[in-house]
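Standup notes
- DV: blocked on the single-chain target, sequence here:
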Amino acid sequence: MWRAVFQTALLFLAPFAAYALFHLLQLRWPFVRELWQGRILSLLTIAGLVVAIVGMVTLGLTRLNQGVYVPAHMENGKLKPGRFE
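- DV (later): unblocked, structure below
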């Protein structure tokens, strides 16, 4: 569960990191308040949401062919881990 939340958060933050890296490569300090005004922040938020949604959909579609999940269970007194069949 935490892995899915962490991956989605990283996907959301990717445009912000790219924007900061862009300013670093242009030899500007990226953490100046004037560079993070309303319009830029709004565009980065929308881009982050789009990237996160596309990433989650892609992840969901690529995991469709794994089969049926069998949860962890006890069998003959031994714990069998969960798996896909």
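- Follow-up: The longest strand covers residues 73-75.
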